[in-house]
Amino acid sequence: MSKSTVSLRPEMPGNPPQEMEKTGAQILCEMLQREGVDTIFGYPGGVVLPIFDALYHSPIRFILSRHEQGATHMADGYARASGKVGVVLVTSGPGSTNIVTGLATAHADSIPLVAITGQVKTFLIGNDAFQEADTTGITRPITKHNYIVKDVKDLARIIREAFHIARTGRPGPVLIDLPVDVSTSKAILNNGMDEMDLPGYRIREVGHGRQIIRAAEAINAAERPVIYAGGGVVLSNASAELSALVQKANVPITTTLLGLGCFDQNDPKSLHMLGMHGTAYANYAIQQCDVLVAIGARFDDRITGDVKRFAPQAKIIHIDIDPTSISKSVKVDIPVVGDARLILSEMVQYIEPRGREKWFAQINEWKKKYPLTYKNDGEGIKPQYVIEEVCRQTKGNALVCTGVGQHQMWTTQFYRFGQPRHFISSGGLGTMGFGFPAAIGAQIACPGVTVVDIDGDSSFSMTLNELPTAVEQKLPVKVCVLNNGYMGMVRQWQELFYGRRYSKSYLQNPNFAKVAEAFGAVGLTATKKSEVPCIIEKMLQEKNCCVVDFHVEREENVWPMVAAGKGLHEMAGLPTETVERL
Amino acid sequence: MILMNKKHTISALVQNQPGVLAHVAGMFAARSFNIDSLVVGRTDDPGLSRMTIVAVGDDDIIEQVRKQLGKIVPVVKVYDWTRENLVQRDLMLIKISAPPEKRVEIQTIINMFQAKVVDISPKFVMVEIAGPEEKIEAFIDVCRPYGVKDVARTGMIAMPRYSRNQAESKSKENNKNE
Q1: Where are the extended beta strands (E) located within A528-572?
Q2: Do A323 and B15 touch (CB under 8 A)?
Q3: How distant is the Cα of B40 from the closest Cα of chain A, in angstroms?
């Protein structure tokens, strides 16, 4: 077996090897630094005390959350904004069960995280000890991989493997469960890197040459092609390559929720988002296209509608690094497995420019006929108007986070994203309460950027306990609460499908401005449409964490909408009554 | 019809480490794939174990199973042996009611199946039998009239026979992540 270990130790006389015995906790801190970690999110507890003691002298910045779920979403937001691996450190038992939602959120959206959980002493495992939980058992289906460290000698290698697995291929969260006696026992930490032992982990990054040519030929031959790009384009940093392909091939492009910003939405070739609450022109284009190019997207049920009637005329090309995504829900004609950036940069050289005037004329007609609109004629505040105004005043350059629900969909519709990693939202798992802690993490990753959490009253209520974290860290995170006093999306479904019986979907909210103030943040309230521009200006100038409570119209709905089980072209709530016959 | 439910024999080489069986079993459960049998055993390499899985499904489902198995980090290699010419073996211990007056009769059956008596008591005989699943099933059927007290089976293990067309067999050796 050939050793590929690179020794970092200079082989010079008079420089003896500096191999010292270190505790597991010290090895952990040292290895985190070697992996380039400068920030950890988390919460202390009994069995992680040795690790926190080692952190006391470590240059790594520690962000103390107020709940472990918040810490995990922060690490997630940090990872999405920076492209780096987010790190979260919590204790055993309740500490580890509290990160479950955060791990599942990151897993569903393929976000690179390393979670370190404390565990009871090795000899107590399985004994129902105090604060014991079977963390690896609980988290196995919601992590890309997980470890329990039984011997301190394995720790350095496992940390290295964990980061490698988290950030390569289709990224995802990796968990390391660390019993307290492993943190305190000693081993020698090599100055070099321990060799990884991952014979079953192989990533195919370079796409198959013949498949790439086949895909390019199919695009060249297409009369009505559409590109459908997802979060994978963001994860592989392939925006420039994607843009080059779109412009050279002259193809319209729509993105998923997680793909927002991977292509400039202000470009005339952008069809904005597709799917359940996507634009009519994107959905019609999908249903009419003859070649569909899916890039880093996985044909989620919120995208396809009735999967049997999805893109019925299309030959489907699918570029994805995860082979299990290929032909999972939609049969693919030309699969290309590999990294989107590498594949696109190779594919573009086989692309021939084509006019496709007829196709673009059709698309422009749809765009004119079915724009995203809302009525903004009353005195009250329309939630869409708040988002449009935030977009206008930030010139579309803010880093926007959201919770989950109506406000999330309106953000995708009415904020225009021009660059990747500027829209952060829980797409796959749909985790309410994700927005605010994710915004904290994103602000830590990007200190100079305006970070706005566009949130719902119900979503924000789930994690507003992180306000003191934002205040303590002096983060100028802005929170726009679109407050309608309902779980808006639940209420919308109850209105449309459950005879307006608003069962348990309304809530009595606190005065969010006063809540913010009590936590040491700035709190503002807007109740009239005329106040909106002014209050957003004030919010954006604020140097501290600022919460604005917008009392919006209570029963506004998100349109258009493809109801569950309908074909993508069967949209309700379009601006004109005429519905396209496809 | 291509989309027919049939039995597939999948073999996976896995790293011999804690949690790998739970991971594989959990993946099958979480994705609602049905397993007929799953056998784990050591190999000549102490670092590797072999799982032999018999699963029922159409070709698309089995393709997903194969890919999802390959995605599990400690799974080193996955083979779908469905189209191979396989040697398949299941080992069974079976306890049959055998009062003295029936013993000769039962012994005849045991000989016909090339099985072996491994224990005998006043009322029962315990028999060891190995072979393909159909043979095991047939043996149970024949013994049933005498009274079957207990059955323990290992589940199916398999290995492809030597194939003249080595090149073709090589191409079917599905590397994971393909």
Answers
A1: 546-551
A2: no
A3: 17
Inform me whether the C-beta atom of residue A328 falls under 8 Å from chain B C-beta atoms: yes
Q: Residue with structure tokens 């009519």? A: A280
* Chain B residues close to A145, C-beta within 8 Å: 73
Q: Which residues in chain A have their CB less than 8 angstroms from residue B60's CB?
A: 327
Q: Which amino acid appears at position A512 of this protein?
A: F
A60 interface with B at CB cutoff 8 Å: no
Tell me if the domain spanning B6-85 has CATH number 3.20.20.70. Answer: no
Contact B71 A327 (CB under 8 A): no
Query: B72–A200: do the CB atoms touch at under 8 Å?
Result: yes
What torsion, rounded to 10 degrees, do the Cα atoms A330, A335, A339, A343 define?
-130
For residue A377, what are its two tokens? Answer: 């004629």
CATH tag, A209-369? 3.40.50.1220
| CB contact set of A244 (below 8 Å; sequence gap of 6+) | A344, A345, A348
pLDDT at A1: 38
Domain range summary for chain A, segments of one domain joined by +: 21-188, 209-369, 383-551
Cα distance from B18 to chain A (closest Cα, Å)? Answer: 9
User: Which residue reads 């200190």 in tokens?
Assistant: A447
Residues in chain B: 178
Separation of alpha carbons B155 and B153, rounded Å: 6
Q: Where are the alpha helices (DSSP H) in A196-268?
A: 209-221, 231-235, 239-249
Six-digit token pair at A219? 């695009």
Check if A21-188 and A383-551 are the same fold: yes
CA distance B45 to chain A (A): 13
Compute mean pLDDT per 10 residues along chain A, 582 residues long, and list them. 43 55 96 97 98 96 98 98 98 98 98 98 96 97 97 96 97 98 95 86 94 98 98 98 97 98 97 97 97 97 94 97 94 97 98 96 96 92 98 98 98 97 98 98 98 98 98 98 97 96 96 98 97 98 98 96 93 71 50
What is the C-alpha to C-alpha distance for residues B25 and A388, in angstroms, rounded to an integer? Answer: 49
Distance from CA of B152 to the nearest CA of A (A): 29
In CATH terms, the superfamily for domain A21-188 is Thiamin diphosphate (ThDP)-binding fold, Pyr/PP domains (3.40.50.970)
Tens of pLDDT, residues A176-194: 999 999 999 999 998 777 7
Distance from CA of B78 to the nearest CA of A (A): 10
Q: Where are the domains of chain B?
A: 6-85, 87-158
The answer to whether A478 and A546 are in contact (CB under 8 A) is yes
Instruction: For residue range A341-380, list pLDDT tens digits in order.
Output: 999 999 999 999 999 999 999 999 999 999 999 999 999 9
Is B22's CB within 8 Å of A137's CB?
A: yes
DSSP H helical ranges for A3-91: 24-34, 49-55, 68-82
| Contact residues, chain B, for A323 at CB < 8 Å | 67, 70-71, 177-178
Query: Which fold is adopted by the domain B87-158?
Result: Alpha-Beta Plaits (3.30.70)
Answer yes or no: CATH 3.40.50.970 is held by domain A383-551: yes
ipTM of the complex as predicted? 0.87
Chain B interface with A: residues with Cβ < 8 Å: 14-15, 18-19, 22-23, 26-27, 30, 60, 63-64, 67-68, 70-77, 175-178
